[in-house]
Design goal:
The protein is of the alpha/beta class. The protein is built from four helices and eight strands, in the order ββαβαβββαββα. The strands form three sheets. The chain has a four-stranded parallel beta sheet with strand order 3-1-4-7, sandwiched between helices. A two-stranded antiparallel sheet has the order 2-8. A two-stranded antiparallel ribbon has the order 5-6. A hairpin with a 2-residue loop joins strand 5 and strand 6. The longest helix has 16 residues.
Length: 140
C-alpha cells in the first residue's frame, strides 16, 4: 500500500516549528517507519483550506492507500473549534474531518510555538544554496 504524509505548520516565513521538524525526523526514522522524502509534503508556513483540500483529494485520486495528516497550528486545538489557523489561513476542521472519514486517512492535531530557522534544519547544503542564490535578481 502506498502511503503519504502531509505536515501542515504555522511558522513565519523562513522558519519551521520544532514539532513539524520532529515529526518529519520521526517519520523518516526506523521507529517511524522509514518514510521517504518523496512521500512527505511539508507546508511549514501555513496552507489554505482550498490548497489542502486539493492536495488531499489529488493524493486519494492517485491511489494513495494511507494519508497521514499532521496539523500543527501555534495554539492548541480543542474539540469545539470549527477551524484551525495554519499560518495566516483559516482552515475548516469539517473539511479535514470529512476527508478522513472517507477512509484511508488519519489526522493528528498538535500545537507548537517554538520555531527554528529553516537553514538550521538542512545544514550546510541549504546554507551553500542560499549563499549561491543571493546574487540572482529578485523575481526569478
Amino acid at each position: 500500500m502506498k502511503r503519504y504524509a502531509v505536515l501542515c505548520g504555522s511558522a513565519p516565513g523562513g522558519r519551521r516549528q520544532k514539532n513539524i521538524a520532529a515529526m518529519h525526523d520521526f517519520l523518516t526514522s526506523e521507529e517511524g517507519g522509514f518514510w521517504t522524502e518523496e512521500d512527505i509534503m511539508i507546508f511549514p508556513n501555513g496552507v489554505s483550506g482550498t490548497m489542502l483540500s486539493f492536495v488531499l483529494e489529488r493524493l486519494r485520486a492517485d491511489g494513495i492507500g494511507y494519508i497521514f495528516l499532521y496539523v500543527c497550528p501555534l495554539s492548541p486545538v480543542s474539540d469545539g473549534d470549527t477551524s484551525v489557523w495554519l499560518g495566516s489561513e483559516e482552515v475548516e476542521r469539517r473539511m479535514i474531518e470529512d476527508f478522513c472519514a472517507g477512509g484511508g486517512a488519519q489526522v493528528v492535531y498538535d500545537s507548537c510555538r517554538e520555531t527554528v530557522d529553516e537553514a538550521e534544519l538542512c545544514g550546510e547544503a541549504c546554507a551553500n544554496l542560499a549563499q549561491g542564490l543571493r546574487g540572482f535578481p529578485k523575481g526569478l
